[in-house]
Design brief:
heterotrimer; A mainly alpha; B mainly alpha; C mainly alpha; A: 0% strand; globular
Chain lengths: 179, 620, 103
């Protein structure tokens, strides 16, 4: 019994069904929890192929930070009641959308299947990564040496996001002042 | 080198007078004609002095190297095309320079008297100087574009001076007519220039003469140059502007439209003679045009009633003689006639101006008569001019005109028909000139009583140039042909020459006699042939064909193209835009989902196309 | 026979999840769920990056996934801020009700 493949099957099933529930559940809260499941499953997938850092961050950032934001907003806006918006769209529209997306999925999958034949261009095989001290070390070294500039740039992105979110969410009083 | 001074003096005169005029306009004061006239005349006299000096220097040099050159600055620098602003004086341009500056000085002097009561003499004299500057550029230019600069410049000055009294709309129209007619010729000049540059890679006149053109190109080049010359030199078919150009002040007519500018065609032909004379056809076209022009315009001159128009048609006719001379290969005879014609035609025009001045603007020859006693100087000098244009020995016209008539018969390019036309024209010339003479100066006076009381001889300022010019008209012929260009003409036996000489003189005398008989005692206006009076209806012809014709074509295009096609196109395109907008409006639902769905479909299509449709991406 | 786990297999999962996310964005009208669907799509792209990083024996895919996470965090923060602002003015999170720009 190949444990790795088995785990992959489990995680991918959770991910796909979770994703479907995100899209199809009427209650936004249910959707949010389905999303949490997808995030966990993805973290498992990352861990399976040895991307330990990403797996950890996936749980920290997505499940920890972003999901909290979503749930918080759902509560803030009192959106924890079922909405029936899926039924409102016309059948034709849904049919066309589903057809296009099915085609898209086929194309995408057909394309990525060719990834089997890809000849590796890099040298970092799993053995090498292990020899160099594991995924965390290798990724961190690359991040803080070759790509430190990009890493620093993300701080500006986050700063901008913070500023704009504050500006958006600030409530204006009737007198025009800000509270 | 002081060659540049030659063109510098008129330029300075032009600038000073121009500035004076601007100041006068700004301060609403009148500049005295004496002041601006003195400046302009001094500039011309100085220029004449330089020309004379250079001419004398040139004579001392052996015939082969008779060229002065002065490069002033690099004018045009465009890749392969490198043009210097170079002045070049050889014997041909020296003759023209002397005529321009010499006759020009006299006419400037005359203008001081003639324009004495004018409102804006500074403007007049600045234009006159501008003309001389440009004319000198024309004859001194070492390259075709330089000649073209002068060519256009004199056209401009001519336009400005014809429409000088711009408050009279007819005169403005005459100026515009001259300008436009000249443009037609100028187009041919430009094309010829392009052709020459394309074929030889040079625009320098000297080099062009050396290199020459391929035989196949000589014909188009020669015809284009010749067509350009018909514009500037008022030959058939572009001659109709010259009679109208008489709207300008009379000294202008004398300088520009008789003595100098209109002869620039002869200058250009002579300058390029070595290039174009290798084509028999070109020469024949030139000669034929010249001969026909000589005859027809002489015929037209016989029916004119305006003193200046008679002279204008006469000028066309004399220019025709010059072209005939060039056409039969006797370029030096043509240039010789340019010189003598400049003397006597300027004299005649100035005499006419003097008459008009004395009669306070009267120009109808049937309202003159018997002026001999009242205007003795004018009359005597006019008679000298008359004798010269008739070609009576020993006056200057005799030598040059006779040479051309002789050459038209005996030259290898000549023929009997040219000769007959030329002699007939000589006869007609005698007829209309005598008609003019007796109607104006002899016979009973038909002058209005009011005007008659105030007739006075012109002031000395105007009389002096007349006298000088009449002397030149008398002795100019003895100078002999000033230049020798082109192939040497064969010398036939003197017997033919004398016969031709005698024959033409006799023809002239017969013509003069008939005219005297017919008009000697005229006391009332003659009923003239309106067909000839209106210049054989060439104007109406042009109006019908080009004027109205163009309008009709334009109207046709307007109705057909504009209304049928363009406007329908516009209307239908508006409808199409409207329709497609209405259809596409459906897609613009405002629903984000709709847009996203469209986006998804588009992505699907694009991906499918990229991955399966395009070869090089298929093997991803 | 049960095969070994290969990195390319993850790509298939990623593609399916991506398509489902796109479907969610298209058919759902609740802005919150649309945002969640976008998160789904971002996640699947991340998975692709990491999988390709393994396939190619490179480390840059991991790094890009890291940056995408940053972008996702910023995006959801701003997106939710927008949702709040919209809800405050329009009292709705239904995207069909938000059509003011159409006219």
């Amino acid at each position: 019994m190949n444990l790795g493949f088995f785990a992959f099957c489990v995680f991918s099933t959770i991910a796909i069904f979770g994703a479907l529930s995100v899209v199809l559940k009427k209650n936004p809260v249910s959707s949010a929890f389905a999303l949490v499941m997808v995030f966990f499953a993805f973290a498992g997938l990352y861990a399976l192929i040895g991307a330990h850092l990403i797996a950890a961050l996936q749980i920290l950032v997505y499940t920890g930070a972003i999901m909290v934001l979503f749930v918080f907003v759902i509560m803030l806006l009192n959106q924890d009641t079922p909405v029936n918006d899926l039924k409102e769209s016309s059948g034709l529209f849904k049919g066309v959308a589903a057809l296009a997306l099915a085609g898209l999925a086929m194309i995408l999958i057909h394309t990525v299947l060719r990834a089997q034949d890809i000849v590796a261009v890099g040298q970092l095989t799993e053995e090498k990564i292990t020899a160099q001290g594991g995924n965390l070390r290798v990724v961190s070294e690359a991040l803080f040496s070759d790509h430190v500039f990009h890493f620093e740039l993300t701080s500006f992105l986050l700063l901008g996001a913070i500023v704009s979110t504050v500006a958006l969410a600030k409530r204006k009083t009737a007198l025009g002042g800000e509270s | 080198m002081i060659l540049s001074l030659l063109i510098l003096f008129p330029a300075v005169g032009f600038l000073i007078n121009g500035l004076l005029h601007l100041m006068a306009v700004n301060s609403k004061r009148k500049i005295s004609a004496n002041v601006s006239g003195f400046i302009a005349t001094a500039a011309m006299v100085a220029s004449f002095g330089v020309a004379l000096y250079q001419f004398l220097l040139l004579r001392n040099i052996p015939a082969e190297g008779r060229i002065f050159e002065q490069t002033l600055f690099n004018w045009i620098s465009l890749g392969k095309l490198q043009l210097d602003f170079t002045l070049r004086l050889d014997s041909l341009s020296a003759v023209f320079c002397l005529v321009i500056t010499g006759v020009g000085s006299l006419i400037h002097l005359y203008s001081i008297g003639y324009m004495h009561d004018d409102e804006t003499p500074a403007k007049y004299f600045s234009y006159l100087n501008l003309f001389c500057f440009m004319m000198l550029n024309l004859v001194l230019g070492a390259t075709l574009p330089h000649v073209f600069l002068g060519w256009e410049g004199v056209g401009l000055a001519s336009y400005l001076l014809i429409g000088y009294w711009y408050r009279d709309l007819e005169k403005v129209a005459a100026g515009q007519k001259a300008f436009i007619m000249n443009r037609i010729g100028d187009l041919a000049f430009l094309l010829a220039m392009f052709l020459a540059f394309r074929a030889t890679g040079t625009l320098d006149l000297l080099q062009l003469q050396k290199i020459g053109l391929e035989p196949a190109l000589v014909l188009p080049f020669g015809l284009l140059i010749f067509f350009a010359c018909t514009g500037k030199s008022a030959q058939i078919p572009l001659f109709t502007w010259l009679p109208d150009a008489m709207a300008g002040p009379t000294p202008v007519s004398a300088l520009i439209h008789a003595a100098t500018m209109v002869t620039s065609g002869i200058y250009l032909l002579t300058r390029l003679s070595s290039v174009i004379s290798s084509s028999e056809t070109v020469l024949m076209v030139i000669a034929m045009t010249g001969a026909v022009t000589v005859f027809l315009s002489a015929l037209m001159a016989c029916a004119q009633t305006d003193i200046k128009k008679v002279l204008a048609y006469s000028t066309i006719s004399q220019l025709g003689f010059m072209f005939l001379g060039c056409g039969v290969g006797a370029f030096d005879a043509g240039v010789f006639h340019v010189m003598t014609h400049a003397f006597f035609k300027a004299l005649l025009f100035l005499g006419a101006g003097s008459v008009i001045h004395a009669l306070h603007g009267e120009q109808d020859i049937f309202k003159m008569g018997g002026l001999m006693k009242k205007l003795p100087i004018t009359s005597w000098t006019f008679i000298m001019g008359w004798a010269a244009i008739l070609g009576l020995p020993p006056f200057s016209g005799f030598f040059s005109k006779d040479e051309i008539i002789y050459q038209s018969l005996t030259s290898p390019h000549g023929s009997v028909s040219f000769f007959i036309l030329a002699v007939a024209a000589a006869f007609l010339t005698a007829f209309y000139m005598t008609r003019l003479l007796v109607l104006v100066f002899f016979g009973p006076s038909r002058v209005d009583a009011k005007v008659a009381a105030k007739i006075h001889e012109s002031p000395m300022l105007m009389a002096a140039p007349l006298i000088v010019l009449s002397i030149l008209a008398l002795v100019g012929g003895w100078l002999g042909a000033p230049v020798h260009v082109g192939a040497e003409t064969t010398t036939e036996s003197h017997a033919i020459e004398y016969a031709v000489m005698g024959g033409s003189v006799v023809m002239a005398l017969i013509g003069a006699f008939i005219a005297h008989k017919k008009y000697g005692q005229t006391s009332k206006a003659e009923k003239v042939n309106s067909f000839l009076l209106n210049g054989m209806k060439w104007d109406s012809f042009y109006l019908c064909t080009f004027g109205t014709g163009t309008q009709k074509i334009a109207t046709g295009i307007n109705t057909f193209f504009e209304e049928m096609i363009v406007q329908r196109l516009i209307r239908w395109s508006a409808v199409a835009v409207d329709l497609s907008g209405n259809i596409l409006k459906i897609a613009q639902s405002g629903s984000a989902q709709g847009y996203l769905a469209m986006m998804a479909i588009a992505i699907f299509a694009i991906l499918a196309w990229v991955i399966y449709g395009v070869g090089q991406y298929g093997k991803l | 026979m049960i095969p070994e786990l290969q990195p390319w297999m993850l790509l298939i999962v990623a593609m399916i999840v991506f398509t489902i996310g796109l479907l969610g964005v298209i058919v759902r009208k609740n802005l919150l769920i649309m945002l969640m669907s976008i998160e789904l799509m971002l996640n699947s792209v991340n998975l692709c990056f990491v999988a390709f990083s393994r396939i190619h024996h490179l480390v840059e895919g991991d790094l890009t996934a890291l940056f995408v996470m940053t972008v996702a965090a910023a995006e959801s923060a701003v997106g939710l801020g927008l949702v709040i602002a919209l809800f405050r003015t329009l009292r709705t999170v239904d995207s069909d009700q938000i059509q003011m720009l159409r006219d």
